[in-house]
Amino acid sequence: MKTSIIGFPRVGELRELKFATEKYFRKEITAEELEAVGKELRNKHWQLLVNQGIDFIPSGDFSFFDTTLDTAVLLNIVPKKYQELQLSPLDTYFALARGYQGEAGDVTALAMKKWFNTNYHYMVPEIDDETELKLVGDSIFTAFNEAKEAGIKTRPTILGPFTLLKLATYHGQKKAEDFYEAAITAYGQLIQQLTQLGCEWLQIDEPALVLDLTPDEVQQFKKLYQKLLAKKGTLKILAQTYYGDVRDTYQELVELPFEGIGLDFVEGRKSLDLLENYGLPEDKLLFAGIVNGKNIWKNNYQETLALLEKIQSFGEVVLNTSCSLLHVPFTLVNELVLKKEVTNHFAFAVEKLAELNDLKKIIGNKVENQSLLTANISLFNQERFSKNGQVAQQVDALTEKDFIRLPVLAERASIQKNKLRLPVLPTTTIGSFPQTIEVKQNRAKFKKGEIDEDEYTAFNQAKIAECVAFQEEIGLDVLVHGEFERNDMVEYFGESLDGYLFTEKAWVQSYGTRCVKPPIIWGDISRSRPITVAYSQYAQTLTNKPMKGMLTGPVTILNWSFPREDISLRESTLQLALAIQEEVLDLEANGIEIIQIDEAALREKLPLRQTDWHSEYLDWAIPAFRLVHSKVQPTTQIHTHMCYSEFADIIQDIDNMDADVISFEASRSSLDILDALKAIDFQTQVGPGVYDIHSPRVPSVEEIEMTIHNILNKLPIEKVWVNPDCGLKTRGVAETEASLKNLVLAAKKVRGGI
Ligand code: GLN
Ligand code: ZN
Fold first, then answer.
1. Would strands 112-114 and 121-123 be described as parallel, antiparallel, or unpaired?
2. 357, 380, 403: which is the final residue of a domain?
3. Where, by residue number, does Zn(2+) 1 bind (predicted)?
4. Which residue, of 27, 264, 469, 703, has the greatest Cβ tally within 10 A?
5. Number of structural domains, the chain?
């Protein structure tokens, strides 16, 4: 049995690619120097795959920014405005990725979007009626040759035409199908050239096949590949899918003359059923994704072998990862602080290669290899998690009424109105204020032990006092403390929760040169100490206006962590919800009357298929949020916040979170969401962001007034709040102060005019 992977983390063991690329952006190194770093990393990674015994080694999975963008550029999908800059190919590429402002012109970047159900983001190819899709690049050939020179035979990988054209945006009259013929020609040429170079296999990624597809789309896919595969000659083609199962196209997929089919058996809940129901033609090699490419836990060999036995009865199998290893950190080797008893349970990218190799050896059935299996079994038999029986009991004991806050929303609204005595169109912010260098330094110094806790806290208190004074001075109605003590909205809470672990170097690419280091949920979650109470309470002593407490919600904490695999996501989230509930009640007991529970990442794990939205996710995610606030007094006002307004399709679920107030980003999406709110008679009070905090631009009073009027055209005034569209931590002080002053003035002017 052979082994294969779909892709490898290109950013490098210690994020070498990120640092080199950023140096290039700052003009500290030349294009040649950057290219050299890229080449070195590619070679190092191929060598590593060889050493770990991987049989099918990908090339073309490397990228200076994003592989979808690479494919677009390879195929000449570059809008005119970027071509007209007349920059070098590398700089044109970066202009597409990041925008360009300089002597050659001024262009914004392509849009960036979440890549399927991952926390990776891709650049959205932009197509207009003038776009001439044709093979113009050579990166895929260069990479193949480079590896060949190093004596390594690779399998080039490329994003397939169906997914590429489905993910692109279209600015003219033409649609995806109008580019199929050109795509067939271009991919046909690519196949021909690769064959000439001595290539044996090509991996064509078609992750869009795991989405809900209409019968029309299925037909289009089929026609596209019938024509394309007619051109394949002797090159063997692997149709690689991941992030789910291909229930809409399985039959078409196996009827088409692909030599290999790549299916995901980790996230693809129906993959095995599909094999069982429709079989697999004899001439096909099945690349079975059985090692999880998204999570960091060791593979359970016994379970995998049992699964493989079933899969193998349908045909010849290659052991594969479930998706590219892009989504896991590079290697465990650099985790020096975590104990061995802990890291023993983890497998990052390099360790996953070893797992594939282990499984191959075990299946090879040599007696000496069975010790690999025995070791793995004993690992899984160990008491692996820090168990907290009390937490599990608490979750088990939850009943319907724990998820229901009483009295109902409308009744609470009038109680809170009487108590809080806020003006109409109350003004507030989303929580954080600018994280200046001094603010970050204060945290860094404390972490390194350069200052003691008293000094650290005194600095934060001074910042809070300054922040509160400013908010009072300009006349905001509901104040915040500014979040100067927080590094990250998940890590900050994780640090005070038992059951969480933190890594040192376990970075994962989020987009381009940006990487994140998600914490790991290791055991049962409980709150080890009050988290935000002291700072919120202190801030409240400085003002007579309501001070809003600021928390991160359980769904967001879960979605930005590596979750456990031994219990369900639902159960983990409920544990988190109980911990945050304690914090909510603590804040309330300490005089905080308004509490915001951020659910910035609520949408993150929404299943790719709409049929799964409720049963697989929303049916527990929304209740988990309700659990957090169900026990507060009617007088306590609960806010929530979301960073995007793409929730028209789950709007009823958002209303069912039963918060008293929700704020969200709206300025950039031209307030489209308001129609949806109106249509379902949205009950929760809303603060659609009235200006965009992602830009340093200061909005004028008139502009904000206009936006408020637009909002009031759609929503009843007693339901509307006025606030920026997200936290202010990434902004400078000057623009923040100017923008907020204008926001308050605008709200006052609108109130005056009513
Ligand atoms: N309260 C957080 C802040 O203001 C919310 C962050 C977010 O929405 N991502 O920074
Ligand atoms: Zn936000």
1. antiparallel
2. 380
3. 641, 643, 665, 726
4. 264
5. 2
Share the mean pLDDT of the chain: 96
Give pTM, 2 decimals: 0.93
Residues with CB under 5 A from ligand 2 (ion): 643, 726
pLDDT band at 388 (very low <50, low <70, confident <90, very high): confident
Residue 172 · residue 129 · CB < 8 Å: yes
Determine the longest span between alpha carbons in the chain, in angstroms: 85
Q: CB of 432 closer than 6 A to ligand 1?
A: yes
Cα 302 versus chain centre, distance: 31
How far is Cα 290 from Cα 297, in angstroms, rounded to an integer? 13
Q: What DSSP character marks residue 106?
A: E
The verdict on 28 and 162 lying in the same domain is yes
DSSP 8-state symbol, 479: B
DSSP for 243-286, written as a single string: SS--TTTHHHHHHS--SEEEEESSS-TTHHHHHHHH---TT-EE
Residue to substitute in 119, 429, 432 for testing ligand 1 pocket (most ligand atoms within 8 angstroms of CB): 432
pLDDT tens digits, 153-210: 999 999 999 999 999 999 999 999 999 999 999 999 999 999 999 999 999 999 999 9
Tens digit of pLDDT for each residue in 314-351?
999 999 999 999 999 999 999 999 999 999 999 999 99
Among candidate residues 6, 10, 15, 564, the one with its CA nearest the CA of residue 334? 15
User: 527 CB under 6 A from ligand 1?
Assistant: no
pLDDT at 669: 57
Q: Which atom of ligand 1 is nearest to the CA of 429?
A: 4
User: How would you label 435-466 residue by residue, b for 16+ Cβ within 10 Å and e otherwise?
Assistant: beeebeebbeebeeeebeeeebbebbbebbbe
End-to-end CA, the chain: 75
Residue 643 pLDDT: 86
Picking from 329, 353, 380, the residue at the C-terminal end of a domain is 380
Measured from the Cβ of residue 417, the count of other Cβ atoms closer than 10 Å reads: 12
108 CA to centre of ligand 1 in angstroms = 25
How many angstroms separate the alpha carbon of residue 642 from the centre of ligand 2? Answer: 5
Note down the domain range covering 720. Answer: 389-752
Q: Which ligand is nearest to the CA of 430?
A: 1
**Residues facing residue 641 across a β-bridge:** 598, 663
Q: Does residue 670 have a pLDDT over 70?
A: no
Q: Residue 544 contacts by C-beta under 8 Å, 6 or more apart in sequence?
A: none
Q: Are residues 345 and 447 in the same domain?
A: no
Atom of ligand 1 nearest to the CA of 432: 4
Catalytic annotation present for 694: yes
Shared domain for 323 and 406, answered yes or no, is no
Please, is 541 exposed, middle or buried when counting C-beta atoms within 10 Å of its C-beta (0-12, 13-18, 19+)?
A: exposed
Please state, in angstroms and rounded to a whole number, the distance separating the CA atoms of residues 70 and 67.
Answer: 5
- 45, 121, 694, 709: which is the annotated catalytic residue? 694
Assess whether 280 and 318 both reside in one domain: yes
CATH of the domain at 351: 3.20.20.210
Query: Which residue has the least CA distance to atom 5 on ligand 1?
Result: 727
Question: Does ligand 1 have an atom closer than 6 angstroms to the CB of 598?
Answer: yes
Could you give the CA distance from residue 93 to residue 229 in angstroms, rounded to a whole number?
30
Question: Residue 116 and residue 747: Cα distance in Å, rounded?
Answer: 39
- Closest-lying ligand to the alpha carbon of 693? 2
Q: Let me know whether 257 and 214 are in one domain.
A: yes
Q: Which helix (H) or strand (E) holds 548?
A: strand 548-552
Using an 8 Å Cβ cutoff, are 11 and 42 in contact?
no
Among the listed residues 164, 179, 81, the one whose alpha carbon sits nearest the alpha carbon of residue 123:
164
Q: Are residues 173 and 215 in the same domain?
A: yes
Residues 681 and 713 in one domain: yes
Do 342 and 413 belong together in one domain? no
> Hey, what long-range contacts does 342-349 have (CB within 8 A, 24 or more apart)?
342/501, 342/522, 344/298, 344/379, 345/297, 345/298, 345/379, 345/384, 346/296, 346/297, 346/298, 346/520, 347/296, 347/297, 347/298, 347/299, 348/296, 348/506, 349/8, 349/9, 349/325
